[in-house]
Write a structure and sequence with these properties.
This protein is α/β, with parallel strands linked by helices and 279 residues long. It has a single domain, classed as Alpha-Beta Barrel (TIM Barrel). The chain is 41% helix and 13% strand. The protein has ten helices and seven strands. Strands 1, 2, 3, 4, 5, 6 and 7 form a seven-stranded parallel sheet that branches. Strand 1, helix 1 and strand 2 form a beta-alpha-beta unit. The two termini are 18 Å apart. 43% of the residues are buried.
Length: 279
């Protein structure tokens, strides 16, 4: 049996991205999303996700924008301007011992509460912005916390080496190898606390290489078991950041709303599910 979860990250980050995600869920093959509780559109996104019964997880964020907490409560995670440290700076700060573990727990709890306020229910699963929840020292904080909210699933991004038809730099390939190794360790640590994930993961190598042809090739070659495909669809936002303005956002929308994809997946004997089905 081959089962596929297609999960859109960053729900709630801004209205343009949200519109694209909801359209892909309503008209396409998107089966799940993770909401970023720190996003400017979180309240509206949570309301719409509830009305549409979209399976929704928490996209835990400690690497971009402003926190839910006040600056004084989580100062070790922030710049002097009150913004989260970017991923590289955060990793360096953790290694140097400059991050207070209590601050990560405080922000996780605050974002969880914000999520439930917006969505009116708990998350189906947890993943994170820039996959920081796979960092070993962050896993040690989150693994005992997540089950307290009756959540049983987390993302494990142990993606295999990219296929030959995907184009990327050596630096990007090195990052994917590092994250895959980190995620494999994280899997065993999360499992020790009763948390599980999909058998396989795809999406990091796919980012920047999206398109209908590549999407079909990916779907055709997913292995036995359950696979999560991470995607980032949305309408391009002229006032957004570089990622939101990237034409790939709309390319991903086009491939996820391709009218032929449901029949194509069925011919491949692939069952489309969500994280809700893993609970």
């Amino acid at each position: 049996m081959r089962r596929l979860i297609i999960n859109a990250d960053d729900l709630g980050i801004n209205p343009s991205r949200d519109h694209g995600i909801f359209e892909c869920f309503e008209r396409g093959v998107l089966t799940s999303a993770t909401m970023i509780a720190t996003g400017s559109g979180a309240q509206r996104a949570g309301e719409l996700a509830r009305r549409m019964d979209m399976p929704t997880g928490l996209h835990f964020n400690i690497t971009e924008g402003f926190p839910v907490n006040s600056q004084k409560n989580i100062a070790s995670l922030l710049t002097p301007d009150g913004l989260f440290l970017d991923p590289r700076r955060l990793r360096r700060a953790i290694i140097a011992g400059h991050v207070d573990p209590r601050h990560i727990e405080r922000e996780f709890r605050a974002q969880m509460e914000r999520f439930m306020e917006c969505r009116k229910t708990g998350p189906t699963h947890v993943d994170s912005h820039h996959n920081m929840h796979a960092h070993r020292q962050i896993v040690a904080i989150l693994a005992p916390l997540i089950p307290q909210y009756d959540i049983s699933c987390v993302r494990i991004a142990d993606e295999p080496p990219p296929a030959d038809y995907l184009d990327m730099t050596d630096e990007r390939k090195a990052y994917l190898r590092m994250l895959a190794e980190e995620s494999r360790v994280a899997r065993s640590l999360y499992e020790a606390h009763g948390l599980r994930s999909t058998d396989h993961f795809r999406g990091l190598a796919f980012s920047g290489n999206a398109g209908k042809k590549a999407f079909r090739q990916l779907v055709r070659t997913i292995p036995e078991g359950t696979t999560e495909l991470m995607v980032h669809p949305g309408q391009c936002d002229p006032g957004g950041d570089e990622f939101s303005m990237n034409p790939q956002r709309e390319t991903e929308m086009e491939m996820l709303t391709d009218e032929e994809m449901p029949a194509f997946a069925a011919r491949q004997k692939i069952e489309m599910i969500s994280f809700r089905d893993l609970q």
